[in-house]
Specification:
The protein is an alpha/beta fold and about 375 residues long. It is built from ten helices and 14 strands.
């Protein structure tokens, strides 16, 4: 009896030990920290060594799913650079051909006056010759009266403290100018006021009422960053304006010329105007009775871009100045010519337009242009 009890006790103990071990083995995977990690990364996370070809193939596969195949702008840089050598050569040839066809002509807007300063408006193509970098142009491709072309005008108004006393009068004169100059559904203008920074109070529009509101919204105050305002207007507004055909681009700049806040220099602002084919007309707001340093700056900007500098020493003269600018904009010529040896070298080229068989005529245009860099 005693032996049977001992045997039963040992059997029960053995069964309990086996059950406990089984339970412990079942619970181990349930504890993440107790799980054994595979030292090798999963296949999906394996680093991939990209080659130009594989990158191109991957990008092409992705684009085929997400966007039309023709949308090349969305491809990564590696994919854009990984075209086959034959395709690259063909693209390069097409690009070079495009350059030869589209940018080897130079457009120039100019005015002609007689010895008394009166505009001469009845000249023809054969009355002019063009000299590019001291060499006669190969040919004049087109010639017409510029008043037939649409006009893009930027009105830049100095809103710094230095012109506070005459600000209201200048605003009203500018409003009248735009009312008389901008032709609905044909011309467009925008308004920028500047002190330490340029501010667009009215973007491109042919609505003269909206332009008037933009001018009246200007408020004087702060320093003067004139060069920055001119640079911004030429680069970000006039150069980027979308047009379906040839246009005239002009800036009317009202300021005393005393810049004290700009980040760009005077010559950098002039260069940007030249690159954007912008003629700058400057109106000095200095009414001291004598020309100062700022007036010389305004004169330099106007002459370099083919415009004119005006110095109205009385407030009432400002309205007459706007009338003169309006008259000039309606008295211009435009021509395009092909240089004798055009090169896309990014270099500055001088321009000189000469009148043939006409004595005493004065031709005013921009002094040069920057060839595109290939």
């Amino acid at each position: 009896m005693r032996a049977s009890s001992i045997i039963l006790f040992l059997l029960a103990a053995s069964l309990f030990s086996t059950y406990t071990a089984a339970q412990e083995n079942l619970e181990l995977p349930a504890a993440p920290s107790a799980s054994k990690r595979d030292p090798k990364p999963a296949l999906a996370a394996k680093p991939k060594v990209s080659t130009p070809d594989s990158a191109a193939q991957s990008a092409a596969t992705h684009d085929a799913k997400e966007k039309p195949p023709s949308d090349n702008a969305s491809q990564p840089p590696q994919a854009a650079q990984s075209a086959s050598s034959s395709a690259s050569a063909a693209d390069a040839d097409d690009s070079a051909e495009t350059i030869r066809r589209t940018v080897n002509e130079v457009n120039v807007v100019f005015t002609v006056t007689d010895k008394h300063g009166r505009y001469v408006k009845d000249l023809k193509k054969n009355d002019f010759t063009v000299v590019d970098d001291r060499r006669p142009a190969q040919e004049i491709r087109s010639f017409h009266n510029e008043s037939d072309l649409p006009l893009l005008v930027g009105l830049l108004v100095d809103a710094s403290n230095s012109i506070r006393d005459r600000f209201k009068f200048e605003q009203e004169a500018a409003i009248e100018f735009l009312n008389q100059t901008i032709r609905p559904r044909y011309d467009k203008a925008f308004v920028v006021g500047f002190d330490v920074t340029p501010e667009v109070t009215q973007d491109f529009t042919d609505d003269t009422e909206a332009l008037s509101r933009g001018i009246r919204a200007l408020r004087p105050g702060g320093g003067t960053a004139m060069y920055d305002a001119l640079y911004f207007s030429c680069r970000d507004k006039l150069l980027k304006a979308r047009q379906s055909g040839p246009v005239r681009r002009a800036v009317i700049l009202l300021s005393d010329g005393d810049d004290n806040q700009s980040h760009v220099s005077r010559e950098e602002a002039i260069e940007m105007a030249e690159r954007a084919d912008v003629i700058v007309y400057t109106i000095s707001t200095n009414v001291a009775g004598s020309r100062g340093r700022g007036d010389k700056v305004l004169e330099r900007i106007a002459e370099a871009t083919g415009g004119r500098a005006f110095f109205p020493f009385q407030l009432t003269d400002i309205a007459n100045v706007f009338l003169e600018i309006q008259d000039e904009l309606r008295s211009q010529y435009a021509l395009s010519y092909r240089p004798a040896d055009f090169r896309a070298d990014g270099r500055y080229h001088s321009i000189e337009i000469l009148a043939q068989n006409h004595k005493g005529l004065r031709i005013r245009s921009r002094r040069g242009y920057y060839a595109p860099a290939q």
